[in-house]
Amino acid sequence: MSKIRWSNYMIKKKYNSEQIIRLLRQAEVILSHGEHVIRMCKQLGISDATYYKWRKEYGGMEISKVKRLKNLEVENMRLKRAIAELTLSNLILKDVAEGN
């Protein structure tokens, strides 16, 4: 049975939006000095897939814009939930009114 070498596996970390923006800025600086993406990711402790995903989602955004986007997403989810609850209540009331 082979031993698992934990040093070869990256431990999954959770980053908030501000940390992601800071890491992307650090990545830009490192890459501007001619470093390759793989080495830059290793320096920052992230995978290259994570880097590309973050760059696609947060690239060029400022922290204030990311906070606003996250707040809007939370508000949107809350409103969708409220609409679903009202729609369900409306359907129940229609069934009761029809005598079902």
Question: How would you describe what is shown here?
Answer:
- The chain is mostly helical and 100 residues long.
- It has 2 domains: 49 residues; 39 residues.
- Helix content is 71%, strand content 0%.
- The longest helix has 36 residues.
- It is elongated and about 75 Å long.
- The mean pLDDT is 86.
- It comes from Candidatus Jidaibacter acanthamoebae.
Q: What string gives the helices and strands in order?
A: HHHH
What structural category arises from helix and sheet content?
A: mainly alpha
Give the biggest beta sheet: none
DSSP E strands, number: 0
What's the shape?
Answer: elongated
Overall pLDDT level: 86
Organism: Candidatus Jidaibacter acanthamoebae
GO molecular function: DNA binding; transposase activity
Protein name: Insertion element IS407 uncharacterized 10.0 kDa protein
Pfam family, one: HTH_Tnp_1
Structural topology:
Elements: H1 17-32, H2 37-44, H3 48-58, H4 63-98
Helix pairs in contact: 1-2, 1-3
Organism: Candidatus Jidaibacter acanthamoebae
InterPro entries: Homeodomain-like_sf (IPR009057), Transposase_8 (IPR002514), Transposase_8_domain (IPR052546)
GO biological process, one term: DNA transposition
Could you list some keywords that capture this structure?
100 residues, 2 domains, mainly alpha
TL;DR?
The chain is mainly alpha-helical.
